[in-house]
Design brief:
heterodimer; A: 248 residues; Four Helix Bundle (Hemerythrin (Met), subunit A); 0% strand; globular; B: mainly alpha; 10 helices
Amino acid sequence: MNFKRIYKYGSPPNYFRLCLKYENWFTVPGFLLIIIGCYGGLFLAPPDYQMGDAFRIIYFHVPSAYLSMSAYAYMALAALVGIVWRSNVAFSVAKSIAPFGASFTFLALVTGMLWGKPMWGTAWVWDARLTSEFILLLLYLGYMLLHASIREQKKADRAASVLAIVGVINLPIIHYSVVWWNTLHQASTISKLSSPSIAGEMLWPLLVMIFGYGFFFWGVICRAGATELLKREKRSNWVKEYVEEHQS
Amino acid sequence: MNIYLKIFVREIKVSMKRWSDILTGVIMFVLVALIFPLTVGSDQMFLIKIIGPVMLLSALLASLISMQNIFKPDFLNGSLEQLTLSHHSLNGLVLMKILSYWATSSLPLVAVSVFIASTYYVTGTSLIAVVITVLLASTTLVNITALAAALTLSVRYPGALMTLILFPLSLPILIFGSKAIEYSIVGIDSSGPFYFLTGMMLLSFSLGPIATAFAIRISLD
């Protein structure tokens, strides 16, 4: 392992420059992919023979659901790195992921409800996936609230990071306890929907959308993390130099 | 005397002095559990159906009431800091604190749960199942509560925050505890949920004190 390189990019000024430099490498492809995916999903893909045009919400639902879960893993990873190396960079990344992860979780829940209402007749089913998604939202909110309610920045970072890591250990337990609870109790209502054998012309916009969301997410995180870092290091020399550089 | 034993005895003595806090937790437990028969009616079938969730929910709410007493008083008078400065393992000391907190806050609930279960028309071996479930669930819950309390030590009014942290983490216990009680009352083989509860208890006792000690160090930084 080349730790020198990690330390080099782990230092706040270098990380900040890196973020601003490569931000557009994520944001621009992200927007392009989302536009292509939207067009492909909303206009080119044929309507589903059972669900008609209503299925098209999948192009927003599935990417947000994917991202909501992977964002939590990224957040916990950043929190772990922050705790181990006491890195301000990692903490600022973890903190800036939280609101976006929570928004994607919320988006996944809302689009799921909008989809569920015409398809299953109810907006909410006590199914394992929906429940764990809801719990995920609570975990994000817990992280954000804990961070916000501790005044000292460093303390808040580390305490919230512990919560994020504990959440990552607990999330599979929660998920499977809901799965077993449900399968023990009643036949699943949506298992036939959750693994649809999807046709190629429906699938490619979905994949494009998933990648588009991912790129967009990382672009946004670059910007948000850099901003967070700027706020935290406002008293340091490199920020002063950066500001003076950009004033003239 | 062994230092860990000393800490345990000291904690018990201190909480005996604050006996009103212990009583508050028990009263909370009883009140929440007794509201259900009064409000939904005393239909025996229905009461037997809801006894599991009611028991665990009341235990959770009671621990929400009493969780402030694990670390906060010691944090305020400075003795918690002295514990972290000692050359003994903080994990072990925290484990002792958790155990004594369990003995003073949850053990009374286990005893009371027998009476509550009787008012819900639970009889015979199912009564034992209820007690064992509350025992297993509360030992896991104290570890989660201790972690939440340690994380929010430096927060002035942590009420709603505690609930938000506690609820997702204790969800598996609530689900499987309710299953264990329901199965043993209905007469299905309930060993599965009991194994799960025991496993969760062991997991929480092995990882909980370490995480809690770490969180205390953070809060005292």
